[in-house]
Design brief:
Pfam families: DAO, GMC_oxred_C, GMC_oxred_N. Its cofactor is FAD. It comes from Metallumcola ferriviriculae. This is GMC family oxidoreductase. The chain contains twelve helices and 18 strands. With 538 residues, it is of the alpha/beta class. Strands 4, 9, 10, 11, 12, 13, 16 and 17 form an eight-stranded antiparallel β-sheet that branches. A hairpin with a 2-residue loop joins β7 (267-274) and β8. The longest helix has 20 residues, at 442-461. The protein is globular, with a radius of gyration of 22 Å. The model is unreliable at 1-17 (pLDDT under 50). Bound molecules: flavin-adenine dinucleotide.
């Protein structure tokens, strides 16, 4: 019998014992207290906190149980498999690109291939309607999440600056900031300094010193390809192994196709597909943590006579108010080599343009990330998103080493007409494929224009020559927004669905607004708060 400490020892193959081989002999075949759908950022935190509190927990994950030592490759193309690659249909004026840029698949979810930029939301993010007259207020405030932000940062030893100039949290972070920073980040900070724009070394869920049996980052630079040395946090290597140590069971390669209700209209478990066969997992409470596209899709697919519009959907808002961040990439060319592939991709950022400044002509704002990048994705994005082909494309790729990049992570305002729903087309499980529709609004477009101009100013102040812009988006959120009014939201402030008392929806889909910074710390803080609520309600 292993004790819990065995599961926190890293760099050996502690995952193999838990790859599901025999579903007939699974641990909680006759029922568990809690079934969590999806083992990503939120699902991992929930599994850890709830199993630690003594609940019997089953986590059902569509993708594989990755082993960093054998499954992660220092190869851009090979690592595409870490993302959700099933076909999703996309429409709208600014149709979203899915695949590698949007969600994970497999234990760890998006945390396996995320960049590790770890930011809190600001106080204003939770009340944009009250403060700026745009978007919607959340049913919670920054202060409700603050203790959970603290906890998550401590739990995974976030590295960051001693002083963080923006928002309510001013540091220090549990672990010191990363040093040295990449050449791209040095270029960014030089440009900011010359223009009087504040910048810092980025807070990262990547170790700057040893922690929990894991080594500090060696700046190998393949963060988005899965971190083989385990220096970057993911729920795959942190929360999930510990949850297993507390008794949780993880069923990987198992696609949940429906949430099932009993005669009283309460959740009784989920149906899932493994290797072409259907299985049922009984549970007293179901939590859906399948991310901003798959969560609404699963709810909409789980129709029954009592809920013909899908589960938790009496408001008609499941799938509505889908959010993303503007993710425009601004490139400039330098005389000296920058080598964008080197080191942790984001090592410096600025939030000087995060809060509303009416003189700019739009509400809300953005984070600027000095953002490294790899050559295959650059070539693809140049051709597909920027429409640069032929000799122009060849020349840029030939001079790849001389480009620097800034990415604008900008707040997109919530819009009822941005949504995910079910299409007419079905996948191999017989579930209708997701169809997402997305268009930027006027405020979003003004913000993008401002961010692009500001990034060019910074790069030019650092002696670069403005080169090209690749339009992009990042980080999906929303689709099951939280709120107090059951007619205007899908879940309450603890992510409990308004319609079904033992059905929780807890992941990025619960976001009301997108904030102007990378979202995963907020996803995890919300999950930790939801777990505490479930524990308190026991
Ligand atoms: C390239 C990239 C870089 C990023 N970088 C950053 C960053 O630097 N900082 C930051 O804050 N955020 C970043 N993000 C965003 C981050 O990954 C997400 O915000 C976060 O993972 C969302 O957490 P989640 O729990 O909602 O979903 P996920 O982490 O995506 O987890 C959902 C899980 O559910 C599983 N699932 C889905 N449907 C089913 C089903 N029907 N049955 C069973 N399982 C299912 C999926 O396989 C997945 O494992 C990045 C994202 C990408 C794509």
């Amino acid at each position: 019998m292993k004790n819990n400490n065995d599961y926190v020892t890293h760099n050996h193959d502690h995952y193999k014992d838990h790859r599901q081989r025999d579903l007939a002999n699974r641990k909680y075949k006759d029922g568990a207290d809690i079934c969590i759908v999806g083992a990503g950022a939120a699902g991992g935190v929930l599994a850890y906190e709830l199993s630690k509190a003594g609940f019997s927990v089953v986590v059902i994950e569509a993708g594989p149980f990755w082993n960093p030592q054998t499954d992660f490759a220092s190869d851009e193309l090979a690592a595409q498999s870490l993302a959700w690659q099933d076909t999703r249909l996309s429409t709208g004026k600014d149709a979203l690109t899915f695949g590698h840029n949007n969600s994970g698949r497999g234990v760890g979810g998006g945390t396996v291939h995320f960049t590790g930029v770890f930011l809190r939301f600001h106080e204003s993010d939770f009340k944009t309607k009250t403060i700026d007259g745009v978007g919607e207020d959340w049913p919670i405030e920054y202060q409700d999440l603050a203790p959970y932000y603290d906890k998550i940062e401590r739990d995974i030893a976030v590295s960051g600056p001693k002083e963080f100039p923006w928002g309510s949290f001013h540091g220090p972070y549990p672990y010191p900031e990363r040093n040295p920073i990449s050449a791209n980040s040095q270029v960014f900070r030089k440009g900011c300094d010359r223009l009087g724009i504040k910048s810092v070394v980025a807070p990262l869920a990547i170790l700057s010193a040893p922690f929990d049996g894991r080594p500090p980052c060696i700046s190998r630079g393949f963060c988005n390809q899965g971190c083989m040395p385990n220096s970057k946090f993911s729920t795959l290597i942190h929360h999930i192994p510990k949850a297993i140590g507390y008794g949780a069971e993880v069923l990987s390669d198992c696609m949940v196709t429906r949430i099932e209700l009993d005669d009283q209209g309460k959740a009784k478990g989920v149906t899932f597909n493994h290797d072409g066969k259907e299985h049922f997992q009984k549970a007293k409470l179901v939590i859906v943590s399948a991310f901003a596209v798959e969560t609404p899709r699963l709810l909409l697919n789980s129709t029954c006579s009592k809920f013909p519009q899908g589960l938790a959907n009496s408001s008609g808002l499941v799938g509505r108010y889908l959010l993303t961040h503007t993710g425009h990439d601004i490139y400039a060319k330098f005389d000296d080599e920058v080598r964008l592939y080197k080191g942790t991709p984001v090592m410096a950022l600025s939030q000087d343009f995060y809060e509303t400044d009416r003189s700019r002509g739009f509400a809300r704002g953005y984070t600027m990330n000095a953002h490294g990048g790899r050559p295959v994705s650059l070539a693809k994005n140049l051709a597909v998103s920027a429409g640069i082909w032929g000799s122009d494309l060849y020349e840029i790729m030939r001079d790849y080493n001389f480009y620097a990049r800034i990415t604008i992570v900008g707040e997109v305002l919530p819009d009822y007409n941005n949504f995910v729903t079910l299409s007419e087309e079905k996948d191999e499980y017989g579930i209708p494929r997701a169809l997402a529709s997305f268009s930027y609004g006027d405020n979003d477009n003004k913000m993008i224009a401002h961010g692009v101009a500001k990034a060019n100013e910074i790069l030019e102040a650092a002696d670069g020559k403005a080169a090209f812009v690749i339009p992009d988006s990042a980080h999906l959120m929303g689709g099951c927004r939280m709120g107090r009014d059951p007619a205007a939201s899908v879940v309450d402030e603890f992510c409990r669905s308004h319609d079904i008392s033992n059905l929780y929806i807890c992941d990025a889909s619960a976001f009301v607004t997108s904030g102007g910074g990378n979202p995963t710390e907020t996803v995890m803080a919300i999950a930790a708060r939801t777990a505490q609520h479930i524990i308190n309600s026991r």
